[in-house]
Amino acid sequence: MNFLAHAYLSFNHPEILVGNMISDFVKGKKKFDYSKGVQQGINLHRQIDAFTDIHPATKEAKTFLQSAVGLYSGAFVDVAYDHFLANDANEFSDTSLRLHATHTYQILATHNAILPDIFQKMFPYMQSQNWLYNYRSMSGTESSFGGVVRRAAYLQSSVEVFELFQKHYSALQNCYNDFFPSVKAFSFEQIEQLRN
């Protein structure tokens, strides 16, 4: 899952959301520098990632993109899942997605002082370009694919993988449909356990 899903699967718990969003930028023992709630979000993010990676639907989804990006296929599936989530009428309307994005940015801005340096530098672009909402569009998703390439050590272009995403759109959407209800239930259960 990518930024939109991690924010959404925090279920409106502000500190958990912050931890869930910054987890990839917090290495090793650095997580203990944060409050208990943010640590819970960091841990939740990692549990969601592990659940996502072993899910049969994700394994199938990766096969549609592997010919272009090999072992990076999982990162692109994460972006594809955010695209399908942004367009999932069971989870968002256009208005509720806009509101969710705005609310997420407000929470992150409130906690700006504790955000890791790399995330702090990225956050203004996330907010000004409205990444969370723009997963809804093909152009926004294409831009996010480009972002994966910029962060990857061995990739030069997202053109071929985006073409595969378009070619296998329906099959990838079916993978998302098989996957998302289970990760939503899993995440909710994890938060309930954390908070009890």
TrEMBL record:
Keywords assigned by UniProt, alphabetized: Hydrolase, Lipid biosynthesis, Lipid metabolism
A molecular function (GO) term: [acyl-carrier-protein] phosphodiesterase activity
Domain of life: Bacteria
GO biological process: fatty acid biosynthetic process
PANTHER family reported for this sequence: ACYL CARRIER PROTEIN PHOSPHODIESTERASE (PTHR38764:SF1)
Name of the protein this chain belongs to: ACP phosphodiesterase
